Description:
This protein has 437 residues and is mainly α. It has helices spanning 20-51, 56-64, 78-103, 110-135, 153-163, 169-193, 200-205, 207-218, 224-241, 246-255, 269-293, 304-308, 311-338, 349-358, 364-374, 379-405, 407-418, 428-436, and strands at residues 13-14, 66-67, 76-77, 342-343. The protein has a single domain, classed as Na+/H+ antiporter like domain (Na+/H+ antiporter like fold), CATH 1.20.1530. Helix 4 (110-135) crosses helix 6, helix 13 (311-338) packs across helix 16 and helix 15 runs antiparallel to helix 16 (379-405).
Amino acid sequence: MHPAPDRRRPRLLLLGRGSWGEVSRIGDILRTETVGGALLLVAAVVALAWANSPWRGAYHTLSAVTVGPHSLHLDLSLAQWSADGLLAVFFFVAGLELKREFVAGDLRDPRRAMLPVLAAVGGMIGPALIFVAVNARVPGALAGWAVPTATDVAFALAVLGVISTHLPAALRTFLLTLAIVDDLLGITVIGVFYTDDLRIVPAVLMLVPLGLFAWLTHRQVRAWWVLLPLAGATWMLMHASGVHATIAGVLLGFAVPVRRRADGTGCEMAQQFERRWRPVSAGVAVPVFAFFAAGVTVVGHGPIGARLANSVTLGVIAALVLGKTVGVLGTTWVVQRFTRARLAAELSWWDVFGLSILAGMGFTVSLLIGELAFGVGTQRDADAKIGILLGSLAAAALAAVVLRIRNAHYRRLRKIEELDLDADGIPDVYQQEDLAT
């Protein structure tokens, strides 16, 4: 007798390439984010240099310039507009991307979604625990426990571009997906833990323009003169409710449909919106926020050594460098250990280790949480910013060393992934994998 066929589900593949459609789409996203990351770095360097120059007074004066109608409680400084307003665009794009990933992308399969989701959770728990351990006995410092929990994919991609690392598709996809889930977790933390004065009436009224926005986008209405006022009203009411206004961006992103209608008509609104707004987010919103948020003045505020030895600064650095690495790497190992999963054959745990270190590059969301936790312009906010900058630089340097060791292997994998002998626009390796499955 022939043995009965093995009908068990195939073992889950950790850090597999994914489908060509998903890899191609993510490649387009990463190209935009890489350019945005370079602009982010330039903005942060200019802000730091200006804030520590003899003309630093002009920088702080510019940040404090107030714009907006007082009657609507929108007379905000330029720094506040960059954090509350421009970052709403950043989180809108993040909401669009997250919904597409889990509704229409490869991550609609719960088994494929498990690793980046759990890795993002582990990558938040690890840094938080380390920060708490360092600051457990420092009064008031624990308010910043969430500061080092974020991963800035634009910053990470800029570093990859600088060190010329040819990461294969699987690692690039994992890094982007982890960062997107991390953004959602970060905005959830902001909404739950950093909302001190919730005003119910504006929060309830906010649901009206949000609902209309959702209804119109599902009806395939794309007129900007209709949708933008509704999005603006949603943002203003969220701001008035006491909840951080950037959460409106995520909710608006979730409201946009990502699939065609059942009859095959219509279009993927989320894809159109993402293509239109991602350059604005990466090229304008995030760099401008970085310019106003990263300009911490170090000179003239006591010995630099004492500033660096501050418990908040040390806690953020240790959390970003060590906590992120242990959190992401440890969670990936646990998933592999306690499931039937296996690591993709062409990758090793050294690759996961390097990517885990790279995840320690927190910037945009970390800076935002630091301002919310300690207050804009306070001493501890400045200490947190120093920790974010130094921790991110340390993570970048360590990741560069680890990933460069494997760069020759990555280059070979990239050549395989880009080989298209039949010139049909789809690399051969993805067609071979489709036939195999």
